[in-house]
User: What shape does this take?
Amino acid sequence: MATMTAQETIDDIRQRALAQLDAAATLDEAIAWEREFLGSRGEVTLFLRGLSALPPEERPVAGRGGNALKQELGAAWERRHAELASADLERRLADDAVDVTLPGRPTDLGAAHPVSEMIDELSEIFALLGFQTVFGPEVETAHYNFDQLNIPSEHPARDVWDTIHVDLPGEIVLRTHTSPMQARVMEQTEPPVRVVVPGRVYRYEAQDASHEWMFHQLEGLAVDRNITMADLKGTLAEMARQLFGAERRIRFRCDFFPFVEPGVDFAVDCALCSGKGCRVCKGSGWLEMGGAGMVHPNVLRAVGYDPEVYSGFAFGLGVERLVMMRSGVDDLRAFAGNDLRFLRQFARAA
Ligand code: DAH
Assistant: This one.
């Protein structure tokens, strides 16, 4: 093959370069093209670098032609690169496009457990009556669970609470009721005291529709000068009215708890039949809510309160029971059963 003149070489490069740039369909191809012709080892660069090897008379023409080619290809590359870059951007935007008309994916929202809701509601009711909500330990000493509540060891009353023991001598227990917080609170404060204590309690019991090894109680305690049984009744009646309607009445019947004297069990008249007797109250007209009474002098003395100066009332109620009474649930086991079909019935719409 005859050697080409400089002009022929320039024409040859231009023709191939422009055709190839036209054919470049992607940004990557265009970038490879730039390297091939205009890069530091590109054809145009090498051509210009080889000028000095040409016969002197050819150098000016070849130099001018080579530089013109370099400029022409550079401009062509800028144009083509810009075209491909904007096409590339368009394509990526189209690929990433979000269809804002698609319906959203619903998130599964949780809801408070019916027992937690009841505890919140009770805390609010009692806050309006001047009671502070406090929490106590679920792993408790026998000292607070029993001794401080006027239940000495060896006393048969201890057997009433079927206790789950944590250690062998029996000094540490899972609290069988929320009452131990009575002494803990009184030891920490001077009267007046007004607290409610919601929380889990544990009993060593066979499970059935009305017994669980774990359930929730809410304890109440008020101690001050001149507190009487009338204050207790008024407080519980107000709670019952807030929960079950303004017409509700409270009934006291004698009962025994070692930490109160006198002690009572208290019931609310059935909201469904207004006390006439129905399926929910099992014909009695009354729904049992819990135990209560005037704080025993021994309990006051044990925390250093003078029973000649101070008196108080205490009460304890089962939280699950309240939900059952209000919502017609008939099996206590449903609350800890983790069945969403049961729990969803209580979930308030968000
Ligand atoms: N702690 C008792 C229980 O679990 C309930 C109770 C009864 C609490 C009478 C009281 C009370 O504060 O005065 O059976």
Remarks:
- The chain has a mean pLDDT of 91.
- The longest helix spans residues 59-96.
